[in-house]
Amino acid sequence: MNKANNTIEDQYKELIESNSNGIIIYRGEDIIFANHSCQKITGYTHPEILKLKFWELAYNRKVVKERGLKRQKGEKVIDRYEEQVKRKDNTFVWVEYSAKNIIWDGEPAIMGSFYDISKQKKIELQLLESEKRYKALANITNEAIFFSNNGIGIDCNKTAERMFGYTREEVIGMRGTTIVSDKYKPLIVERMLSNYAEPYEAVGLKKNGDEFPIEVQGLQIIYNNKATRVTIVRDISKQKESEINFIKSENKYQILTESLTDCVFMLDINGLFTYLSPVFTKITDFKVEEFIGRHFLEGIADDYHDKIISIFNTGIQEFKNNLYEIEIVAKGGNRIPTEISSSTLLDENNIPIGRIGTFRDITNRKINERSLIIAKEKAEESDKLKTAFLQNMSHEIRTPLNGILGFADLLRTEYTPSQDVMKYSSIIYKSGSRLQSLINNVLDISKIEAGSVEVNIKPFVLNHLLKDIENLLKSKAKEKHLTLSILLDLEDEDSLILSDSEKLNQIIINLINNAIKFTSKGEVILSYSIEKNNIRFAVKDTGLGLSPENQKLVFNRFYQTDLSKKRGFEGAGLGLAITKDLVELLKGEIGVNSEENIGTEFWFRIPYQKGSSTNVRVNIKDNLELFYKTIHILIAEDDDANYLYLEALLSKYNVKLSRAVNGDEAIDYCENNNVDLVLMDINMPKTDGLEATKIIKELKSNLPIIVQSASAFEGDKKAAFDAGCDAFISKPIIKKDLLQQIKLFF
C-alpha cells in the first residue's frame, strides 16, 4: 500500500516538475521545493532557491510574507494576484501568481504557482506610455490623475489640482492617502499594495477639509525604470446626488406607504391582495406574506361580508371612492374596528384593475366615542342636578331671608307686643342660622376644592367634645320628639386623643343633623369604639332609610334623594359631601348601611392616637363680668351695622368702647391712648387692618389684637397671624366665640 502511495506521489512530483508554470512549495517561511520552470523564470539554481525564504522572491516582500503566513494559519487571503518576481540578476519580471494549501510529504504546505506575463505587461505599458499616460496627463480631462511611487506622489495633472486644492509642487512628495478621509485610508493602502485595478468608491478629502464622494481606479506601470502607480480619481458628487434622487423617486411610493400609520392595501380585479404595507402586521399580528394572494373576505368578520362585497363590486363598476367602517379579524380571532377608505385602481387606459386604499385601527376612537356618550349622559344628568340644585339653592336662600327680612321689618315698622318680640327674634335667629349654615357649606366646598383646608392635629378630650355636641343638638332633636343619645366607649380621662377637633366636630354635627332631618320618630344614637389603630364612629337613626341606589350616590355633591318641589326637607345637598371630604382629610374612610323604612347608620373611621395632657386648653366661661377692672376696647370697623352689633353685644359688660373707622385712625388712637384690646377688621379704607396690625404691634407689641374677618379661608387666617394678630374670629361673629377670645387675654 505504501509503495502504491509513493508511486502516486512520485508521479505527482514529476507532473509538477514538468509544468510550464513556475511552482514553489514552502512550509513556514522555507522553500522546500521549486520546479524547473521556477529556476528558469528566476535565474536561480535549485539549491539557491531552497536557501531563500519564499517571500524573498517577491518585489512586495512584506505583503507576500504576511499573506503566506496567514494562509498557513487557515486565514482567508487573496488567492490570485499580479506580482513582480525578483530575479537573481536583481531585475524584476511580472507574473500572475496563485497559491493553495496542499499536503506535501505527509504534512501541510503551500504551493505557489506563477507564470510570466511580462509580454502582456509590456504591451499594457507601451499602450499606457504611448496613449493613456499622455491622455491622462492632458489637462482637459475631468479626472484627477496622480502618479506615485511606493505610495509617495511624483506628479499630477491640472484637474487634480482643481479638484483637491493642492498644487503640483505640494503633491510631489505627499503621501497618497492624504487625499482621502481617515476612514478610507486603510482601504487605499490595501488596494495600492495589492495592485488592485478595478474602480471602487471612497470619500475624498480636499485641502480645506471638505469631504466629497469619489471613484478611484489604479494602474501599475513602469515609469522611468521605476514601479509607478497611476491613480485616476473621479468626482462623483453629482452622480451620487442623482442616485439619491433616483432612489427617492423610485421608492417614493414604498417610503410613503411604509411611513403611514394607516395600512395601505392593493387588491386585484378578483379581490386578492397584491400589496399590504408593514402596518398590517402591527394591526392584525399576521405577517404580510401570509395574506398576499388571499381574498380580502378572509380577513373580515362574517357579518360584514355582504356589505364589503357590495362596496367592492360597485367601486369596480362605477369607479367609486368609499369611506366606511367594518370589523376585521386579527390573529387569534380578535375583532378590530377599522375605518376603510378605498378607490378604484386604473391602468394607463383607465381600465379598472383592482382597488387601492387604506384602513386604520379605530379601537381607541370607538372607546372614546363610548366615553363621550357616557360623559354626555353624565353631563345631562349633572345638568339636571345643577338645575335642581340652583332651584333648591334659590329656595334655601330666599326662605330664611324671607323670615329675616319679613320679621325684622315687622319689628322695625310696627308696634309689636313684648311676647311677640321674643317670638319674632327667635324666628330671625333661626333663619339667620339656617342661612349661615348654607353659606358655610358652600365656603367649605370651595376651600376643599382649592386645597386650602389645613389639618391641625392637637390633643383634646374626645368625651368633652361629644358631650358639647350632645348639649348643642339635644334641643333640636327634642323639637322633633326624638331621643339623642351619646354612647361613650372610654372614660373621660382615657379619651384624650390626637386629631383635628374642629373638623371632627364638624363631621359629627353634620351626620347628627342629617339623621335628625330624616328621622320623624324614634332616636338618633352616636357611638364610638376603638378598633386597633382606628376610632370607629357611628351615627344611627330610625328614619326613612336609603335605597341601594341612593346609598351609592349619597356622598356626591349637590345630590339629594328627592329633588322634586314636593320634598319636605331643608338643605342644598352639600353636607354629606363635605363630611366625606373632611374624613378623607383626616386620613379616614366613611360609609353607610341602610334599609328603607328601617333606618340608617353612617359610620367613619379615623386614625387613633392617644394624646398627652400637655397644652390641652381648658374651657373658658363665656362672660366678662368677673373682670376686676374696666377693659378699654378699640373697635376698628368701617361698617356701621357691624360696629353697632359689637357695641350692643359688649356694652352690657364691664368694658369701655372706642371706634376707629379706618386703619390710620386705629394706629393714631393706639399710639396716643391707653387701650387694653383691639378688635381689628381686615377690609377698611386707607390703611387696611393687616397693615394697621403690623404698625400697632411695632408701637405696642404687648397690645392684644383680635382680627375679625368675613373671609373663612385658611390663607386669610394665616395672613392675619403673619401680620402679628393674637387671635382670629370669622364673621358672622357669635357672642360665645367672641367672649371666649377676649377672655383669653384677661
Description of the molecule:
The protein is an alpha+beta fold and 746 residues long. The chain has six domains: 2-116, PAS domain (Beta-Lactamase, 2-Layer Sandwich); 120-235, PAS domain (Beta-Lactamase), CATH 3.30.450.20; 244-361, PAS domain (Beta-Lactamase), CATH 3.30.450; 367-445, Helix Hairpins; 454-607, Histidine kinase-like ATPase, C-terminal domain (Heat Shock Protein 90); 631-743, Response regulator (Rossmann fold, 3-Layer(aba) Sandwich). The chain has 23 helices and 27 strands. The strands form six sheets. Strands 2-1-5-4-3 form a five-stranded antiparallel sheet, sandwiched between helices. Strands 7-6-10-9-8 form a five-stranded antiparallel sheet. β14 and β15 form a beta hairpin.
Instruction: Give the overall form.
Output: elongated
Strands, total number: 27
How is the quaternary structure best described?
single chain
Annotated CATH homologous superfamily of the largest domain: Histidine kinase-like ATPase, C-terminal domain
Strand line-up across the major sheet: 2-1-5-4-3
Structural class: alpha+beta
- Beta-strand share of residues: 25-35%
CATH architecture assignment name of the largest domain: 2-Layer Sandwich
Major sheet size, sense and barrel closure? 5 strands, antiparallel
Which segments are poorly predicted (pLDDT under 50) over 5 or more consecutive residues? Answer: 1-5, 561-571, 615-624
CATH class of the largest domain: Alpha Beta
Helicity range of the residues?
40-55%
